Known about the structure:
There is one protein chain. The chain is an alpha+beta fold. The chain has helices at residues 6-16, 27-34, 43-50, 58-66, 85-102, 115-128, 133-143, 149-159, 182-186, 196-207, 212-219, 224-231, 333-350; strands spanning 37-38, 70-74, 80-84, 131-132, 162-164, 178-181, 236-239, 245-248, 264-266, 301-304, 307-317, 320-327, 356-361. Among the domains are: 20-186, no CATH class; 285-361, GMP Synthetase, Chain A, domain 3 (2-Layer Sandwich). The protein contains 13 helices and 13 strands. The strands form four sheets. A five-stranded mixed sheet has the order 9-10-11-12-13. Strands 1-3-2 form a three-stranded antiparallel sheet. Helix 6 (115-128) packs across helix 7, helix 6 (115-128) packs across helix 8 and helix 7 (133-143) packs across helix 8. The longest helix has 18 residues, at 85-102. The radius of gyration is 21 Å and the shape is globular.
Amino acid sequence: METLSVRALNRATLARQLLLAREPVPVTEAVGLLFGMQAQEPKPPFLGLWTRLDGFQVSDLHAALHDRSLVRATMMRATLHLMTGADYTAFRTTMQPGLDSALRVLGDRAKGMDLDEVVPAARALFEQEPRTFNEVRALLQEQFPDVNERALGYAVRLCLPLVMVPTQDRWGFPRSSRFALADDWLGAHPAEETALDELVLRYLAAYGPASAADVQAWSGLPETGAALERLRPDLRVFGDDRGRELFELPDAPRPGEDVQAPPRFLPEFDSLVLAHADRRRVIADEHRPSLTTKNLRVRAVFLWDGFARGVWETEYKRKVATLRLRPFEPLPQAAVGELTQEGEALLRFMEPDAKETIVTVADD
């Protein structure tokens, strides 16, 4: 069995994630190729698409959200994702076991809650009109006064297929968004049958080669290992440097280790840094603790030679846009120059009215 190095895995995954070159791909097609983008907040997908697509404009994503070819909704790991409407419809039912498992975090707060009563009651509310969850929780509390209000809202998010209603806000959604029933918004009900094998194949196309543990970490589903065993005859199987099996589509791109990887800025919560149990293909184990804040925010990282070399943040004051690089380790001078050039372009995208753009590198 052929062994793939960490660097080989890096280049294979970057190729699928549109990070070896900006591609001239329409925005909806790109999100389909990426098989979703984590969208805990509205802005990161805009930045993630800018760093991947040639000529991407904010209006491109706005248009796709408003024509409903893309939706923002709860999917993998019970988190918000940007998905194509077609993929959401095809795989929402497949994701339900993972969403059901996420309900366990409610613990005692779920006391007295009967989902067979709560979910239909919530559906009836959304059938009247799209609503914010502040509105829904209050209305449900009137019907179920003995159940924890927050638990009611969380259960509805996970058990009722809903999508967020876009607006003309700069990044597509206001702070408190309205939600609509997915079948009303998309004009189609989620598929009745599960499609776990197809979901695993789509994951491999976007993030492979990958182990069973990688697929489970990305999806939050426990049965992905069994799906890989069913698919094994039609897949290629490699090993990694730790002796684990990696499953791969036979015709998927695997560029050579010497292929150049340009500097890239990934936004907060980017799916690339969350899509594997073993994340060394993107970020070294010793730097992984720096990826997440104490309140579980996933920091924005920058890539140099294909790997995460540090985190970044921006500030906009008095028409001056500043991007601060915080490297994990000292950067080569060539890296600083190329990252500065890329960072200035990012600032111009994020803050088009800025009179000045500044990129700095922290010493600590």
